[in-house]
Every structure is written in C-alpha cells, then in structure tokens.
Specification:
Helix content: 25-40%
CATH architecture of the largest domain: Alpha-Beta Complex
Radius of gyration: 24 Å
CATH class of the largest domain: Alpha Beta
Shape: globular
Number of strands: 16
Distance between the termini: 47 Å
CATH topology of the largest domain: Creatine Amidinohydrolase
Strand content: 5-15%
C-alpha cells in the first residue's frame, strides 16, 4: 500500500464532499481511486495516478481505495497496510492520519465496503466506471452490474443513477474553487521555468529529446510530473507528436506543448520558437496571425459568452490574416462559415482544464457540451471539445494554430472545392516553406470581469520569444 496526502488543508475536501452529498440527496455514491497498472510483470508498474474525481474529493493518492458519500456520511475505504509494506515503502500514514488529512468522517478497511453497499442496495448506489480493469471488476462485483466490452463503458451507456453522479461531478468540477486555482497556478510555476529552459536550450544541431530533457527536467525539479505526453517537435503540423528523435535544423521552428502537473492539477501551455533565435519573415508573418487570433479569443473569455463563439472569433482572425497573406481569398466571415480556415486550423480552440488536462473527458461530451448542444458536422468545428457558456471559475485553454498538414492538403475531398474556386492558393502557401506548424496556447480563467491568463509569465510576443532563445545561444 502507498498513500500520498495532499498539501491542501482537509477543509478543502470536506467542503467538496459536503457539496456532493447535498447535490445527490438520497443517492449514495462510490468514487474509486483506481489501482496500480503493471507495465509488463506485476511488480513493475506505471507511476500511480489516482482517478481525478477521487482526487478532487479526497486529495490523497491511494491505490485501490473508494470514497463512500451518502448524505453527510463520508467514509473512505482502503486496503490496510501489509506486513512488509514498511520494508518496501517506508512508514505509511495511519488510518487516523489519513482521516484528518482528507476531511472524511471515517477511514475503514476495504473489506467492509461490500457490507455497506449491500445494506444500501446496489441499485441505489451511483458510480463512474474506472479505466482500470481491476477496479472495473470490483465495481461490477460490488454493484451487481455487468458492463459490456473490455473497456469502461461510455457515459452514454451508464445507468440513470450513475448519470446523476456524473452530472453532479460535472457541476462541481466545472467551476473551480480558490483552492483549485491555486493548485493550477502552482503547476504553472514549473511550466514557466520549463518553457524558458526549452527556449534557452535550443540551438541548431541538437535533437528534440535534448530540448525535452531541459524542459521536463525543470518539471521534475519542482517535484512534479508532466501532465501529459509532452509535444516537443520541429514537425508542429503533427498535432499530437510524441516522438523526439529529430535533429533541429537552422531554419526550423520548435513547437513545444508541455505542462506540469501538481498533485493531479494540470497546466497546458504551447509555445513556438525559432531554432536560430530569429523568426524569418514568413515565420513571423504567420506567427503574428496566430498570436492575434489567440489574443482576440482570450478577450472573449467572459461570463455568458458561448465557448463556441470564442472558437469562431479565433477562426475569424486567422481567416483575415490568411487573406491578407494571399493564402485564402474571399470574405473572412464567409470563409469561416464555409470552414475554409479549418484547412489550416483543423482543431478546436481549446478545452476545459483542471485535474485533467482535458478536464472530465472521461465523461465525454456530457461534460464538454451543454444540454441540448451537439458537435457540428463541419470539418474543424466538429473537433471542438467544449461548447458551454462561460462562467466565473471556469478554466479553459486558448490554443489557435496554423498548420500545413499533408494529409489535409493532399485530401481532394477536403481541399479540392476550395482550390477549384480559388479560395485556397496552394502556390502562395508553398512560399511559407519554413513553417510546418505554429500553435500558441495559454491557460485562462474566466472571472466576473476580465479574463485572467494564468500562464502569462511565459514568453509569447515575437520579441520576448526571440530574447528567451537568444539567452541560451
């Protein structure tokens, strides 16, 4: 057994537990922590990461544990310390120490959970299926359920009582309390240092993995871990590129999408910079378009604004810039309406962020889309991960980009109509041959007034980025 307790006070978790109990009313809830996952043989496991819903309510990373919430009864069930745990893991906190740190009313052995569930009636207990197969098995046994398939069922396949818990967690986690914001800000201190270190380490001839090492080293030095697989590449047109074997060329751009995670709380920041320390005229032209698009989108992160409109605002600025550069032709608003800009900006402008880097995506579009809203069928807009009206306390990423994706530009079904009517000028686009992909991303908190850019300390303007790269050359 292992148990890592949170640095936050127990009152933070007690308040969240109480809110959940009040929201659920007579419905009882079980929230599981998940377990260790072997990499190959059982004793060689991946680094443990507790389930995000569990972390939100308990704060402690405890494998194979479960939180029971039934009104004001909040109990934590966990596996007692084994006889040789202290030999391998050192001294572990007692049940009483864990109770005092997590805000629960009691900590009990996991073996007693089955009786509690039986007394309540398994059909009256809500849960959210874990991605961990071992935990899913425990859930099925305790709740007398059968979920089809080897993987956890999608949220659309959950029982009605489970959806009550899903909606309660969405309501709680969508609006961050002060403690949550403080944790994200803490994560961003390491993310800031990481991006500056990556810029300073960059020079022609080294490899992507060297930049990665400089960046992730700063994260580890803060006692944190990367919140996701870092994207550090000279092939920025590959949106989720997690290989690091390429050599940096004199005229390349590095796209670095890296965020630190602190006690489960994520950050998610992207910067793009020139390997030689100076943007070329073509690189600078497209970079400035992306930057203005991002600034315009950030300015719309205000209460009552529909996030889809934030995406469209970014898209409109990109379309205007691409028209000015002769890459697209036509009225910018008409181009966005037709989706022409998505040939170069194929993804959504961002997503929720919190305990998950794409917060609550285990709950699918039920978390990301407001009731009654569904994904667009238009290419590009259909990839938007969030379509809710913004409220104070919501944290989102804003991350527009311009990419020359071969799979898109060579797709006649997508590009053909825009080439045929001269909307897309492929010859003009080809003159920007030293640009593969540019993305600029920040973490932004919606407040009652102006948006708060939580990652504002990380260099972003052309001048600041070039200065940060030059500092190491």
């Amino acid at each position: 057994m292992s148990a890592q307790l949170s640095s936050q006070p127990a009152e933070v978790f007690a308040r969240r537990q109480a809110k959940l109990g009040t929201t659920l009313g007579a419905t009882a809830a079980l929230v599981f922590s998940g377990g260790d996952r072997p990499r190959n043989y059982p004793a060689n496991v991946y680094a443990y990461r507790a389930d995000s819903h569990f972390l939100y309510l308990v704060g402690a990373a405890i494998p194979d544990a479960a939180l029971w919430v039934c009104g004001d009864q909040v109990e934590l069930f966990m596996v007692p310390e084994g006889e040789d745990d202290a030999l391998w893991h050192g001294a572990l906190p007692s049940f009483e120490e864990i109770r005092l740190a997590t805000g629960v009313t009691a900590v009990r052995p996991y073996a007693e959970l089955a009786q509690v569930v039986a007394q309540a009636g398994p059909a009256a207990v809500a849960t959210l299926p874990s991605a961990d197969a071992h935990t899913r098995h425990r859930q099925c046994v305790l709740l007398e359920r059968t979920w089809p398939g080897d993987g956890a069922p999608s949220v659309t396949a959950l029982d009605e009582i489970d959806l009550v818990l899903a909606d309660a967690m969405i309501a709680l986690r969508t609006i961050h309390d002060d403690a949550a914001v403080a944790m994200m800000e803490r994560a961003l201190t390491a993310t800031n240092e990481a991006h500056r270190a990556g810029m300073a380490a960059t020079r022609p001839g080294i490899f992507e993995h060297s930049v990665r090492g400089a960046m992730e080293g700063k994260v580890l030095a803060h006692g944190m871990v990367p919140a996701y697989g870092s994207i550090i590449t000279v092939h920025g047109e590959v949106l989720h590129n997690t290989t690091y074997h390429r050599q940096l060329g004199e005229h390349d751009l590095v796209l670095a999408d890296l965020g630190a995670e602190y006690e489960g709380w994520a950050s998610d920041v992207t910067r793009t910079w020139p390997v030689n320390g100076t943007f070329s005229p073509t690189q600078r032209a497209l970079y400035e378009i992306v930057l203005q698009s991002q600034l315009d989108a950030i300015d719309k992160v205000r209460p009552g604004v529909r996030y889809r409109d934030v995406h469209l605002a970014a898209s409109l600025t990109l379309a205007r810039g691409l028209v000015d550069e002769g890459i697209l032709a036509g009225d910018p608003e008409g181009l966005v309406e037709r989706g022409a800009h998505a040939l170069l900006f194929p993804h959504g402008v961002g997503h929720l962020i919190g305990l998950d880097v794409h917060d609550m995506e285990d709950l699918g579009d039920r978390a990301g889309y407001a009731p009654g809203r569904t994904r667009s069928e238009q290419f590009g807009l259909g990839y938007l991960r969030l379509d809710r009206d913004l409220e104070p306390g919501m944290a989102v990423t804003i991350e527009p980009g311009i990419y020359k994706v071969p799979a898109i530009l060579a797709n006649e079904a997508l590009c053909g109509p825009f080439v045929a009517d001269k909307t897309l000028n492929r010859d003009r686009l080809a003159t920007f041959d030293d640009v593969r992909g540019i993305r600029i991303e920040d973490d932004v908190l919606c407040t009652p007034t102006d948006p708060l850019v939580l990652s504002a300390a990380i260099p972003k303007t052309v001048q600041d980025v070039e200065a940060a790269v030059a500092a190491g050359q």
